[in-house]
Write a structure and sequence with these properties.
By secondary structure, the protein is α/β, with parallel strands linked by helices. The chain contains eight helices and eight strands, in the order H-H-E-H-E-H-E-H-E-H-E-H-H-E-E-E.
Amino acid sequence: MTTESEKFDKFGGDWWNSSGRLFSLHLINPLRFDYFAKKAGDLKGARVLDIGCGGGLLSERFALSGALVTGIDLSLVAIDAAKKHADEAGLSIDYRVLSPSGLLMEDPEKFDVIVCAEVLEHVDDLKGFLADALKMLKSGGIFFFGTINKTVRARLLAVFAAENILHMIPNGTHDFNKFIKPSVLVRILKENNVETMEIKGMSLDTLKLEFKISRDTSMNYLGYGVKGEG
């Protein structure tokens, strides 16, 4: 059985190839970062944790905005690609091959912002994963997320069409059983003292192959929550 990290090991040098196997990530990256940055406000000096950072597409955008970024991922291949690209770009980003639980034990400091974008739908134990991650978010800190809804439409488009017809992502990338209904995510966040503030859809124009923020959350969605006191 292929683990989730092994799936992403196969992408190797494609992480920063905008026309390669991960080109769909390059399509959504400016859109999702702009949304996150607008909600976060001034990022200069903010401690940001990018969980499931992959090759560092989001991490670099945060670093370029002045944030102090830590990126973690279980794929050594992805982290190596992230480190190499950051070095070439002259960016200082703390990349580590760790899970949230591993970072929690190694470096229990609090972050101003935690990001889980396009990673939650690859997690086996969502409750445990988020519980560990959100322990590292300071009171008043912001949690950003982006994932895939568990709907029939998402199964048809995000799995079958995207993988087999449009070839936007490699076959076998997603497992529908791990997709997450927004209501489930909101409940888990609330259990960890994080109040969801907004959820928006991220819709694809299949003719233009462009993503946009929308009200339609039936497939991809993103949003944020704020951690309470205590």
